[in-house]
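Entry: Zinc-ribbon domain-containing protein
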Amino acid sequence: MTNYTGSKCICCEKRFTDDDDIVVCPDCGTPYHRSCYEKNGRCINDILHDKNVSWLPDSPEPEIPVTSASNVKRCIRCGAENDPSLRYCEQCGTPLINMDAPRPFNDEADDRHDPAPDPMKTNIPGINMTPVMLTQDSDIDGVKLGDLARYVGPNPLGFLPSFIKFGKTDRKLSMNIFAFLFPPMYFMYRKMKGWGLAAALLLGLLNLPFMIESFSSGDYNITIKFAIDVKSHNFQLLKQITMYVSMILEIMAGFFANYLYYKQARHDIFKIYRESEDEDRDAISERIMRKGGTSYGYMLLSFLIYNIISIGSMLVVAKYF
């Protein structure tokens, strides 16, 4: 009885199960559900009777490739469904090439592969990058992911997911709370000297009305006399405008700092690639780490520049205005 399990009854086209009551034609051996055979009253497999051959089990139906839900590539990072032919997630740009890694957004496990390795391990020494199983040679818009991690230095986990998104999509926004709170110091800490100096200059000048008001009223235990009436409507309006402009600049720094850092990293790494064609890999990696990384000295310098601009511009106004 169980030999027919999985084959089709040619009458109702339903597959036989172990619990079905099955009868067979005594001449050709074609199996039927008992109710189907009794309904017809005879074997209806006339082709076998005409050819005088016996019934053989039908072969199982072929599996339909890549259309089942378990074969849909879901992004490990954002969970978006992607066509199996794609290499990168259409939503966030995360590579889909390593599907052996744990897939928390998939409902069904894939038992065809060996257990996946620890997702936090990479072959970049000393760096735990991201839950996406990438290698240091993974290409991110022409730059090796390992070189981006070396350039970042401290805290690559906070930057690489955004870098992957920038490299594989057209998106440029990524929130950085530290850049929002202290733009000049943050830019200089990450060796973005041009942006750091520009932020210190602009924010220092925009802080001038607040400094004038504070020192004219003796808030810092030092009173400086100004020819400007700090209580006038025009001065208060100016102070509000500069405050709002400063806030807008800080918000923009918070949203675009990571993208600006990514563009600088690519620029610096490409330059090192061009200048180091004859050097070995270790020398190139060392140059990238020295070029990138962080600097507390630059961060302190930005703080000094900001205060020099704020206080210096205030003293100039006190002397000449």
